[in-house]
Amino acid sequence: MTDQTRIPVPDHIAQAAHMDAEAYARTVESAARDPQGFWRGVGERLDWSRPFTEVKDVSFDRQDFRIRWFADGELNASVNCIDRHLPDRADQTAILFEGDDPSVDGRMTYAELHAEVCRMANVLKDLGAKKGDRITLYMPMIPLAAVAMLACARIGAVHSVVFGGFSPDSLGGRIEDCGSTIVITADEGKRGGKRIPLKANVDKALEKVAVDKVLMIRWTGADVPLTEGRDVVYEDVREAASTECAPEPMNAEDPLFILYTSGSTGKPKGVLHTTGGYLAWAAYTHELVFDYKPGDIYWCTADVGWVTGHSYIVYGPLANGATTLVFEGVPTWPDAGRCWQVVDKHKVNIFYTAPTALRALMREGDDWVTNSDRSSLRLLGSVGEPINPEAWLWYHRVVGDGRCPVVDTWWQTETGGILISPLPGVTELKPGSATKPLPGVMPAIVTNEGDILQGAAEGPLCITESWPGQMRTVYGDHNRFIETYFTTFPGKYFTGDGARRDADGYYWITGRIDDVLNVSGHRLGTAEIESALVSHPAVSEAAVVGYPHDIKGQGVWAYVTLKADQEPSEDLRKALVTHVRAEIGPIASPDVIQWAPGLPKTRSGKIMRRILRKIAENETSALGDTSTLADPSVVDDLVRNRPG
Ligand code: WTA
């Protein structure tokens, strides 16, 4: 049905937009005819202390692999996000803050942001930080999180932000992997009325891995222990730090940040983004996709611990001189009307959130929405997972009063910024479709052999040409980078997603086709959860698959084989859930644990996940051929004892 539903571009949007249909056609055409010229324009959005002359220098071929953009240019990301706006908008709000507690809010102008970033940069230098050092951030969603990122950028240190919901073990693993010398954190975070013991988690993580310094921000004022010689309270040193700090000139290809994300195998990988290409792409896409115009109030509800927070709370909006709202809370607290109260309070024009939040709010009924005014809203965005047409239509009809285009933006941590999305002034919308590639982006749907399909097609989604925001490597493991993304389909970037392209050339992302789950818009590797489960003394083997979940999109279904001397019990089930939460974090909690006396395996010992997925999806009549299994009877047992 939804292939047929179309929502035209509203006239008033098309007339005022940066790009209308004609400009889009012209841009796409020029990007194809003269790619270097097109990309030069994207790079020239930034202020360069040494202008680039080289534009694109890329080869996806194994022999000769390289991804380099604007490679002889020099710039500093914090200068582009702050200093260059000072002549015109020193007193404009850069960061609007809305606390978890609805009575708490605040704002920081570009001049204030400049002073704060310089202060923290100077503090970091005093703590010994130098260009190229890695600094881990484990922060609440407060303006100082953005300040800390930009302070790292100012001195050329590489930040690695770890989401505050990850466990001490996950945090420790990430600190160790990139060899951070400093951790920046807060005493506690607040979310949905609850406290998150950030500093205590850091202390626990640092029992297993050492850093030189911990810089702690006082946020809730909780009484937390400090380690002499290692821990520094930011508020104790802030006043004395100068509000001027000369920016470190960075080569375009110098690293800006590392962000860990889950893959289909092994531990999370450190996705590395560099300075010039990443920032140019974040800025370009933020302006184009959200049709950002000076004066707009822009709100992305993500956390800075995810790439969406990096590109579309901090770097993209600030590079464009926007007012970006930082929200500490959650959409459902104190009640399900919170988002719309915040929209009205701050007169938000552009609102960007995840389908999982929309589904949770939709369930609470329309009154929470319709009790608010929302007339400031002009544009709505969605990110993180496929949005089901029902949620899309609700977002458009109820939240946007049928007035506001919905941009369903497809991208990944690896892509740095949006690659496939409607443009508000250009694209007729189809609910559930991310629609068309942005100018310069070259998606391809391929066969399993890697042949590019034309016209209407379905299959693995690749990108055949580089774009500036593309990740450059997996930190410390360049081979893994090439293996993961450029080997399945040689010469092309493989996204890990499947997609369908309809007869109008619209893309419909069908979801991950590798062993990566997308739970409430958070990426989780099945291998990570399995390794957490088998690290419990009662467990002998585990296999994890995703299954459709009304709110989360996907839920976590774990098949667990216990050691011979163990008996299944409700207590043990709870203990395993607690164990996974402690090992990875609450977002990885199994929704279902099914006791499995045996797992379906091939004769060579490979677990047949396809069958496990079907059982979890309750499609037990479509299990396919099980006769090649080492022991086909285990499948009957799993089907018979399927919970729920
Ligand atoms: C999924 C988040 C469908 C996809 C920015 C991708 C989406 C993964 C969409 C990346 C969308 C993201 N429609 N699926 N609009 N946006 N995804 O790295 O499977 O946290 O590969 O980046 O989320 O998740 P990541």
Automatic annotation (TrEMBL):
Record-listed Mg(2+) binding positions: 534, 536, 539
InterPro entries: Ac_CoA_lig, ACAS_N, AMP-bd_C, AMP-bd_C_sf, AMP-binding_CS, AMP-dep_synth/lig_dom, ANL_N_sf
Catalyses which reaction(s): acetate + ATP + CoA = acetyl-CoA + AMP + diphosphate
Annotated AMP-binding enzyme C-terminal domain residues: 528-606
Binding site for ATP: 384-386, 408-413, 497, 512, 523
Modified how: Acetylated. Deacetylation by the SIR2-homolog deacetylase activates the enzyme.
Domain AMP-dependent synthetase/ligase per the UniProt entry, residue ranges: 88-465
Annotated positions binding CoA: 191-194, 308, 520, 581
Coiled-coil boundaries: none
Molecular function GO terms recorded: acetate-CoA ligase activity; AMP binding; ATP binding; metal ion binding
Keywords: Acetylation, ATP-binding, Ligase, Magnesium, Metal-binding, Nucleotide-binding
Location of the Acetyl-coenzyme A synthetase N-terminal domain: 24-81
Cofactor(s) in the UniProt record: Mg(2+)
N6-acetyllysine found at: 606
GO cellular component, one term: cytosol
Annotated GO biological process: acetyl-CoA biosynthetic process from acetate
Entry EC number(s): 6.2.1.1
Family assignment from sequence similarity: Belongs to the ATP-dependent AMP-binding enzyme family.
NCBIfam families membership: Ac_CoA_lig_AcsA, PRK00174.1
Function of the molecule: Catalyzes the conversion of acetate into acetyl-CoA (AcCoA), an essential intermediate at the junction of anabolic and catabolic pathways. AcsA undergoes a two-step reaction. In the first half reaction, AcsA combines acetate with ATP to form acetyl-adenylate (AcAMP) intermediate. In the second half reaction, it can then transfer the acetyl group from AcAMP to the sulfhydryl group of CoA, forming the product AcCoA.
HAMAP family associated with the record: Ac_CoA_synth
Protein name: Acetyl-coenzyme A synthetase
Higher taxonomy: Bacteria, Pseudomonadati, Pseudomonadota, Alphaproteobacteria, Caulobacterales
Gene designation: acsA
